[in-house]
């Protein structure tokens, strides 16, 4: 039985698609590897500068101890009693908490990888309720409660980010800020409260400059908490557990305002139940300073369309072979497919130096130019190769539109495939495939 040239060509084209799938997968692996290098660069900068920062507080911390006594047992000396001392603590949260932060950013380079760092000037104001020294009664008969000195404390995730000494005023009195290590809280900053201030309503003001990398957040510990942020970075991403009530983003930066109450937030309860930890894991108001266009994410998304690019090109070649009697050898199919595959590697390497948009233009121009010149020699017609070049430019343009429209990427990709299938079916609707395959 005579083998059909059409089936042989289809088989060879399918085999080439399988072969080219391997380098396309290697390109995606390369993108993942470069992404890991970028993340390593961010961690190295954060280690030498300061990492992501969370501001917790200020709030009052009241340590006390409870000594309980129990009657003597037979093993005890006569007339003596057993005693046990238990360390405990009380918290007082501000009635109002107003945070005003001014954030200035800087882009550092670690190799070819950009890392965004910031310095945030903070001013925290608020007031604590007027209250006397709390009365704590022992649950054990004959027990004794000993109150410690109350502290006004606050905490940041990475103390290396503090630029200069914080200033703390309480009731108009300037307090010296020191570092403490407290059970259940770890390393904190704060000051001892003057004894004469305890029964009074206590307005406070805290100022400090805080360096960090990538992300900044605040814990809403006040009965009413408000945060106002102004920054010179035009690409914020708001996260955490509360979105801003107001936001304004423009070319020179952004501003945002958050507001919540203790009725809507579990932050106070989470702090009361927390254990010592390096980073706050509870509720927060957060902003991330993201890159406007993640070149690695975009390149990875582009490479996922690589096999579709090669497939559409091979389908076009095959149809022109059938309809226009072009003669293209399977090795020439392979050459064209290799050029289409190298496009994504070229895009990645150029994007690290020039940015994604410029890299995409240069990679497209390079690959389309190479393929147009190559096909003009293969087909013996510059006009035919120029026509294919126009189709490639249109295809790359559509891919760029898909990459830029994340929300509609699936729809646009599906429409592209549907359009390609529709065109193929329309131009071959009257083709006699039995005669074509002879």
Brief write-up:
With 438 residues, the chain is an alpha+beta fold. The chain has nine helices and 17 strands.
Question: What does this 3D model show about the protein?
Answer:
With about 450 residues, this protein is of the alpha+beta class. It has helices at about 5-50, 265-270, 295-305, 305-325, 330-355, 355-380, 380-405, 410-425, 435; strands spanning about 55-70, 80-90, 95-110, 115-130, 145, 150-155, 160-170, 175, 180, 185-190, 200-215, 215-220, 225-230, 235-240, 245-250, 255-260, 285-290. The strands form two sheets. Strands 1, 2, 5, 6, 9, 10, 12, 14 and 17 form a nine-stranded mixed beta sheet that branches. It has an eight-stranded mixed beta sheet with strand order 8-7-11-4-3-13-16-15, covered by helices on one side. Helix 1 (about 5-50) runs antiparallel to helix 3 (about 295-305), helix 3 (about 295-305) runs antiparallel to helix 5 (about 330-355) and helix 7 runs antiparallel to helix 8 (about 410-425). It is elongated and about 105 Å long.
